Batch of 2 targets.
Target 1
Amino acid sequence: MVFLRERDCKDGFILDGFPRTAAQAEALCEILTDMGRRIDMVVDFSVDEEELIKRIVGRRICKNCLMGYNIWFAPPAKEGVCDRCGGELLRREDDSEQTARARFKVYKEQSEELGAYYDAAGKYRKIDGAAGVEEIFEKIEEIIGKK
Ligand SMILES: [Zn+2]
């Protein structure tokens, strides 16, 4: 948390992907309180389980140039072949559906607990994380503006 003392955090900061659990949120709150600071708002980019599973299970990566694809959302022109270099597309072993569902279950339990923690403090906002980039941007502006 040393970076929070940096000058560019003077007027505010965004934490992305942290805290992940209610216990981490409590620890963060103590640290911030000691620094005379606080969390103003928590934005949950909520994505439906099936959508998220497709994003993970559909991931492919070119073994030559590391270009990323998704067989549903960003497929290559020819199945299994990289558009950019013609290389073979591979799936990472931990991108299997079984692994993705197990990870999602843990994530869901932790994020519900975390959401409840911040909701109790009146700081929790949930938005549709599957929406388009512009829509998400507008929602965030709205949330920050309401603060
Ligand atoms: Zn490639």
Target 2
Amino acid sequence: MPFPQPDRDVAVELITGRRSSDALFAEAGRLRDAGRGRTITYSRKVFVPVTTLCRDTCTYCTFAKPPGAGGEYLVPEDVMAIVNAGAAHGCTEALFTLGDNPEARWSEAVGFLERYGAATTIDYVRMLSEQVNEETPLFPHANPGLMDEATIASLRPTNPSMGLMLENISPRLLEPGMPHHKCPDKDPKERVATIEAAGRQKVPFTSGILVGIGETAAEVIDSLFALAELQAAWGNIQEVIVQNFRAKADTRMRRDAEPTVQYMARVVAAARWILGPEVNLQVPPNLTDDFGVYLDAGINDWGGVSPLTIDWVNPEAPWPHLEQLRAVTERAGFELRARLPVYPEFISEEWIDAGLMPKVASAIDEEGYARVPQADGSRSL
Ligand code: SF4
């Protein structure tokens, strides 16, 4: 009997275990193989924490810090040192991750931006993107939080792709006692508006959900359907990340239960079912010890993996060595291939700024995957 079409209530029963998920996993694998084949991708990246200042106070976060307690900006020299080290290790992505709109809260942020001639933090990201793009073989991939359309347009000439996690579509998580209370940048309406603006600007966009921050199973499924609707409307969601919450010692959510691997795997399989065969579906491999289980749940990407820098958002969770990632992937019957921060099917003049296309074209093979630079200056797969 064919597996049914995606359905909200059935999906909730499947991920909560009220209905057997064996057929769901079979369907997720079938859909992935039909749409993406047996290739699993990753992006060789360096993680650049542009600023650890943020105006929000998400109760699971250890990335953001106040001034004087680790909250600061990286100066351009520090950013370039990280990126140049990444170039020496064959990386192709400079992931700019940062707190949201810190200048709205901290005078120290305003002072830093004035000293460096930037109108806003995102304008500072634009300046860094231009320098990285001009001086190194890496491609910036900006994750600077909420963006309006003009901001996205200002980053497009240097960023072949950008990102913002939806996290969850439910406004309930903004209520008192919930993790996004008084976090204006986590309003799902605003996050949807950013993804739509990126769609209008023809920017390949990374988004996804965060699982285990106090949402219900129905809200997980609603979030996946919301991403599916955005993709149907704009076609610019180049990948969907399903990320598991990890409880961190020095946060208000330190005693909250983390989602189990079994629950996560069911959510990932449901994501493949709801989002369809073509979507690029990713689970970060550094947040689950036995990460290979997600191959059976329909993923086709491991996301950004750094041979060099730590995951500043989850500093307790090192990325697996690339050799281990390759071994796990190949043991399960897949081929591991490096990609740029932008996926092969988005490498066209429709999606990439014309001024950036020559650099992108020189960094890919005939199938659009990354040619990893070697230490001697040559390029190989
Ligand atoms: S999760 Fe992001 S938005 Fe929330 S406090 Fe941390 S850096 Fe800021």
